[in-house]
Every structure is written in C-alpha cells, then in structure tokens.
Amino acid sequence: MPVSERRACRVLGQARSTQRRHPVIRSDENRITKRIIELACCFGRYGYALITALLKREGWRVNRKRVYRIWREQGLKAPTKEKGTIVAH
After folding, report:
1. Which of 67, 79, 84, 88 could form a disulfide with 52 if both were Cys (CB 3.0 to 4.6 A apart)?
2. Half-sphere exposure in the Cβ direction for 3 (13 Å, CA)
C-alpha cells in the first residue's frame, strides 16, 4: 500500500519499533520443544514451572519465560485438580 510506515503505525496504535524487530529462532528450539512435550506427557500434573526445573536439572539452559512461550505455542495445559475427590493412600 502507498502508506508510510509511520502513518500506518500511528493509525494502528503501534510503536514503529515493533515492526522492525525480527524474531531470533535458536538452533535448539526444535529439540527443546520436543523435550518439553515429552516431559509434559510423562508428568501430566506438572505445569511449565516444574517442567522448567526438570529441564534445568537435565542441563538445558532455559528460563521460565522461554518454556512458558513454548508451552503456549504447543497448546499444553496441566489438568486441573478435581475438587471433592478423595484419594486413598
């Protein structure tokens, strides 16, 4: 379209810097995504924070924000606890 970047961003209410930033995809992104999915399947009740701890224990260099981003992209969810259920030990 014959509209300047400055004008288009002003109309949309976005900062111009958001249009210039290109995402950086790390070389281990696919491997870590696969591992997060594996851990989420093995430990169904764990959320992204506990999965982050497991990954760090395994030697991955990750932070919770990165794991959370991948967690959302993959549509992973920890099942909620059922209230009123009595578990016998």
Report:
1. 67
2. 9
> Domain tally for the chain?
1
Tokens of 12: 């949309």
Tokens of residue 1, six digits: 């379209």
Contact assessment for residue 16 and residue 5, using Cβ atoms and an 8 Å cutoff:
yes
Whether 57 maps to a domain, the answer reads: yes
Burial label, 15 (beta-carbon count in 10 A; 0-12, 13-18, 19+) = exposed
Q: pLDDT of 70-87, one tens digit each?
A: 999 999 987 777 776 666
In this structure, what DSSP letter does residue 46 have? -
Q: Domain for residue 37, yes or no?
A: yes
pTM of structure:
0.68
